[in-house]
């Protein structure tokens, strides 16, 4: 199966820089290990440019923020993944169900809102 992140064009982001930073700072505050795959926020070229100052040093060894493509099915199938936060695209929901991974949906557009309702 091919990985499909959403029905949104690949070069389109839905998060502002402030939203992007709040999301990853929230993950930092959990104290838990994390892997985040996000597109750069609106108006920013790369994920690295959008990271808060000192963030990488503070989460080194337990947190990764990646802006490129990932093999999502392999990640979701790993036993250390306890929760998947997703935009509720059909492909991502399907992969979550196949891997028996818990999912938190955060829909942004189109069918994602209906998909999220189905998962509740």
Automatic annotation (TrEMBL):
Instruction: Name a Pfam family for this protein.
Output: UDPGT
Q: Which InterPro entries match?
A: UDP-glycosyltransf_plant, UDP_glucos_trans, UDP_glycos_trans_CS
Q: Does the keyword Transferase apply?
A: yes
Question: Would the keyword Transferase be found if you checked this record's keyword annotation?
Answer: yes
Q: Which domain of life is it from?
A: Eukaryota
**Single GO MF annotation:** UDP-glucosyltransferase activity
Keywords on record:
Glycosyltransferase, Transferase
Family to which the UniProt record says this protein belongs:
Belongs to the UDP-glycosyltransferase family.
Q: What is this protein called?
A: Uncharacterized protein
């Amino acid at each position: 199966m091919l990985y499909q992140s959403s029905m949104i064009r690949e070069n389109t982001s839905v998060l502002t820089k402030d939203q992007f930073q709040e999301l990853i700072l929230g993950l930092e505050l959990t104290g838990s290990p994390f892997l985040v795959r996000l597109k750069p926020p609106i108006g920013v070229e790369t994920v690295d440019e959008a990271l808060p100052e000192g963030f990488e040093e503070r989460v080194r060894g337990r947190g990764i923020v990646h802006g490129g493509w990932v093999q999502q099915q392999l990640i979701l199938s790993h036993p250390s993944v306890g929760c998947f936060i997703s935009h509720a695209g059909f492909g991502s929901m399907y992969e979550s169900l196949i891997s028996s991974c818990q999912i938190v949906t955060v829909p942004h557009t189109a069918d994602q809102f209906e998909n999220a309702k189905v998962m509740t």
